Amino acid sequence: MMPKTSHRRMPPLLRWLALPLLLAGLAFAWWTLSPLLLNTRVDEAFPTAIAAPTVAAVVVAAPTVAPALPTAVAVVEVAPTVAPAPPTVAPVQPTAIAEPVALVSGSFTRVDSLHAAEGTAAIYQLPDGSRVLRLENFSAQNGPDLYVSLSGHPMPRSNAETHDSGYVELERLKANQGNQNYALPAGLDLAAFKSVVIYCKAFSVVFSTAELLGL
Fold first, then answer.
1. Are residues 141 and 147 in contact, defined by beta-carbon separation less than 8 angstroms?
2. How many structural domains are present in the chain?
């Protein structure tokens, strides 16, 4: 007679601990891999700004005085003067919208067989003095935790090259396709930055770069 084999069951406590860990692992895998399979798109209008309106011209009308009444014998009456009419204000006419000026631009490039992007990156100065980075006809391999940043390296391909020569993080990438605007911090020294970088913060991976060149 063959002896019965015993199968050990997992203790209930371990089963309760394994379930959350399994769910967390599945959630992390979905967060990591799903962007590689999905595309998102945004199309923002070209940035413009209206200059401050001009000061309206003020026209002051000359005061009018009523004619004096005829005098009687030995009686002279002087008509009272009339207060000046309030000034009239010409309607305010806003000035024409000035055109944004392109300062630097570049084209996105392929980093390796998995990470690449197409389109252009250009920095514009707007009429109000602010500056904005615009991505046009942009299309990139999607991924988790992608950010738009500026680097002092002209063509970074690694985490070290991206950060060691100067680095400014602008904003999370809005979509991996389409036209997009990103405001630049006031007072940023553009001369210190040579490229736009699409960068994965979670895994310290460069997805694409665009070297910025003067126009």
1. no
2. 1
